Amino acid sequence: MDKLYQDSKIIKILTAQAKHEKVDSADIAKVDEHIKALASDPNPHNRYLIAQIMAFTVNNMTRERTNFLSLIADEKRVPYGQKAAFRIRQDGIRAFIQAKGSTTARSKVASKQLTVDTLEVSARPAINMVELKTGQSNMAELINEATAKMEAKYYEQIQKVLSAVAATWSAPFYGAGSGLVKATLDPMITFWQRTGGVSLIGDIELVRQFAELTGFNSNAVYSDNIMDEQNTNGFIGKYIGANVVSLTNPYPDESSTTPVFSTKDLFIVPTAADASMRPLKVVFEGDVDSVDSLNIDDAVFEVCLRQFFNAAVVVGERPYMSVYHDQSV
Predict the structure, then answer these.
(1) CA separation (Å) from 209 to 145, 151, 206, 238?
(2) Can you say whether the dihedral through the CA atoms of 104, 105, 106, 108 is positive or negative?
């Protein structure tokens, strides 16, 4: 194994393993033998390959574990050393009613551009080289844990940035109440429905409250479709014409009972607007990188996994989404 690529078979197998998907036992055995063979001769090149296996697999995992970015953010991925520039259109064009043949005043096509600097998110797993040689270390589980910890840091930063800015917005772009308060929430949804379709995106605990707002209960009579939706998904699929979407909200690791994303924020996203109009901007600079080291004292093999990343909120004439915060405990 002289050269690794993002789509190498070993990476695909380890990614599937780490995601707890069904993998052929013969393929798992081949991957284990590859890693054991590399660890049995821990020269710099072989250690580099093990570190690359981890970096490539973590990179695959971080792109697939949640649908948050695709639903709510304007995301850009740029090569190392490049800056992500986000351009936001501002209202600058005017229209007039005037006498025929008059000269129309010039309108300015306005926009503003923001360059987002990146931060480093990293994890530093340490493995005993003897355990790697003998196959005692489960590489897939190690990768899954490293991915979850790095991912939790990504989204901690994203939520901190978005929450701090959204709380300063006024209605109909920001609202709050104890639970889902219909009198506050409905006008926020209606505002965006005038522009086209709307998606209501939140944690399952939050979106299942929409059933109560409709008067849904066991004594009422509803269509079979609504009953099937509630029983199948745990929430209704529509609320006053808007799509209700449950956000995939994983736990940081198997020992945690607190999910990655807040269970209290509902995102009201106009689907008619292009993703580039969304105020939440997220940039990933390069892929997950790795640096490895072998400690001569205790034969511990360390891999530092790094990703350059950051988030910002950029608003033109208005934020093209709204945030409702559930204040209930």
Answers:
(1) 32, 28, 6, 12
(2) negative
For helices 9-18 and 44-62, angle between their N-to-C axes, nearest 10 degrees:
50
CB 129 within 8 Å of CB 294:
yes
- Taking the alpha carbons of 63, 67, 69, 70 in that order, is the dihedral positive or negative? positive
Minimal CA–CA distance to 327: which of 264, 266, 268, 267? 264
Question: pLDDT > 70: what percent of the chain?
Answer: 85
Tokens of 215: 């008067």
Q: Give backbone dihedrals phi and psi of 163, rounded to 5 degrees, phi first.
A: -65, -40
88: which 2 tokens? 């936001």
Distance, C-alpha 121 to centroid of its chain: 14
Q: Does the global pTM surpass 0.85? A: no
Name residues whose C-beta falls within 8 Å of residue 252's C-beta, 6 or more positions apart in sequence.
Answer: 148, 149, 151, 152, 258, 260
